Amino acid sequence: MLACDLDRTLIAKDGMLPPRTEAAIRAARAAGIRVIIATGRMFVSVRPYVLQAGIDDPVVCYQGAVVAEPKTGRWLRHEPIPVALAKEAIAAIVAEGFHVNVYVDDELFVGKVTPEARAYADFQGLVIHEVGDLAAWLEKPATKVVFAPAQPNVRLQGSAEALKRTFAGRPLVEGDTVATTGHQRINADMPDHIRQLLNAPAFALQELRLVVASGAQGHRPHRR
Question: Buried b vs exposed e over 99-129: b needs ≥16 C-beta within 10 Å?
Answer without folding.
Answer: bbbbbbebebbbbeeeebbeebbeebebebe
